[in-house]
Structures are given as C-alpha cells and as structure tokens.
Specification:
By secondary structure, this protein is mainly alpha-helical. It contains 15 helices and no strands.
Length: 286
C-alpha cells in the first residue's frame, strides 16, 4: 500500500509539471519553425512564429533575440529595439544581445545608449569584430575620432582582410590631421576590394584635400568607372577638371552628376547647373 501511495503521489507531482513542459515544447516548436523560415528568407512568416513562441513563453530569451534581428532585417528599428531590450533583460550577460541592441540604438541616433550597450558587449566579449566596428562607427558619429580609431584599429588587427574596418578607420583618420594614415587605410580597403567605388571616392577626397590633384582625379575616375551613377565623384571631377581648364571634361562630369543625383542634393545641383552655364558660355566664345 505504501508503494502504491508513493506511485500515485509521483503521478500527481508529474501532472503538475506537464502543462509547463507542454508550453515549453510548443514555444520551442514555433521558435524552431521560425529559424527554418528565416533561413529560407521568409522573414514575415518567421516573425509570426517567433511572436507565437514568446506568446506561449514570455521569458523565451532566444526567441526575443531572433525576433529583434528579424525586425532589424525589415528596417523596423523601433520594434527591433523593443525585442532586443527584452532579450538583454532576460540574458544580461549575452554579448550578442547587447551588441545588436547597441547597433539598433546607433541607427536610431541614440548614440549614448548605443555606445553603452556596445561597450557592455565589448566587456563581455572583446574579440568580436562586428562589435568593434560598430563601436568605431558610433564614436565616429559622435565626432570622438580618437576613440573611434582605437576600436577600428583593433578590428583591423582582428580581421585584416575585411575592408569594412579599414574603410571606417580611413574615414575616422581623415577627420583628424592623420591624412597619410587615412590614405593607408583606404588603400588597404582597395587592395582587398579593388572594384569598390566608394573606397576610391574616399581616397580621392583625401588627395583633393591635400591638393594632390592628379592623384585625386585618378581615384575619382576609377570610382566613376566602377559605379557610373555615384554622384559624389562626378561633381568633384567637374570641379577639378574646371581647375585644369578641361572644359569639355568638366561639362561632361557636371551633366552626368545632374543625371545621377537626386533632389536631396539641391545645393550641389544648383551649383552644377550654374557652372554648366558658365562653361557653355566660355565654349561659345571660342
């Protein structure tokens, strides 16, 4: 009889746990299906499954984390931040949660909050490349170029064959007196990805500021050859060609700039139009 009562008591105890186990299994099913849909590129469906998972289990940190990343992929930064804030609260020592939340805050221009989260991620995991690059970008956005350079240099040491950190390092250095250091960084990025128009554009801009006109023109021309619709180098080429009295080349550059630029470049567009009129008048006088 004693054994029988013990068996019945065990069944009663097990029964109290079964609903919780069932909920955990149901939440895991939604979560795993969400991951599968995400791998298939079906983000909307994946979001729906992650939301079902956290509805079943509100403390499901992995689901909150994945949901935040899915919303970020949809450029829904407010919703992404809300989900990642939940993930951070549930897993305060999870470096990726802090890093991703910090990156979202930076995108939202909430720089101090973003840096706080990214610094926490760095404290938890100092050798994460994306965290280092994100910290460099965040400090650059705050015009704190020494701190930006500090983290971006660490990123280049961690992954010397990735152009992203070199490009950001070049931009940060170009904002200081270290123009030669900026050139080194941009050239590293170009060595890794020779056909990247923006890297050539960045390098050309530094050369122009150093009054190295021939080098600047060469890099601007390379930028345009790799991306004919990139307006920045076209406008600057027009200016430099004008300085060298290459009137036809300047006219061509400014006209291409007008075709490639948008209404957001209203000031530059107006200036280009005025310069075209002046150049055309000079041609007609000949």
């Amino acid at each position: 009889m004693r054994h029988r009562l013990g068996f019945l008591a065990a069944l009663a105890i097990a029964a109290t746990f079964l609903p919780g186990l069932a909920r955990a299994d149901e939440a895991a099913d939604h979560y795993n299906l969400g991951l599968q849909l995400k791998r298939q590129g079906k983000n909307a469906e994946a979001i729906a499954e992650m939301e079902k998972a956290i509805k079943v289990r509100s403390d499901y940190a992995a689901a909150w984390f994945s949901l935040g990343n899915l919303w970020r992929a949809q450029n829904e930064y407010g919703k992404a931040a809300t989900a990642l804030e939940k993930a951070v609260k549930l897993q305060p020592k999870d470096a990726p949660s802090h890093a991703n939340l910090g990156s979202i805050y930076v995108r939202q221009k909430r720089l101090d909050e973003g840096i706080r989260e990214l610094e926490k991620a760095y404290e938890l995991k100092a050798d994460d490349y994306e965290t280092l690059v994100s910290l460099g970008f965040a400090y650059r956005s705050k015009n704190d170029y020494p701190r930006a350079i500090e983290f971006l240099k660490k990123a280049t040491e961690l992954k010397p064959t990735d152009p992203m950190a070199w490009t950001n390092l070049g931009v940060a250095r170009s904002k200081t007196d270290d123009k030669e250091g900026a050139i080194v960084a941009f050239k590293k990025a170009i060595d890794i990805n020779p056909h990247d128009a923006k890297s050539h554009f960045n390098l050309a801009t530094v050369y122009r500021r150093m009054r190295k006109t021939d080098e600047a023109i060469r890099e601007y021309e390379l930028a345009v050859s790799y991306d004919p619709n990139l307006p920045g180098p076209l406008y600057d080429l027009g200016l430099l060609y004008s300085q060298q009295r290459r009137t036809e080349d300047a006219l061509g550059a400014f006209r291409k700039f007008l075709a490639a630029s948008s209404s957001d470049d209203a000031g530059a567009r107006k200036d280009a139009e005025e310069r075209i009129k002046t150049l055309e008048a000079a041609v007609n006088k000949k």
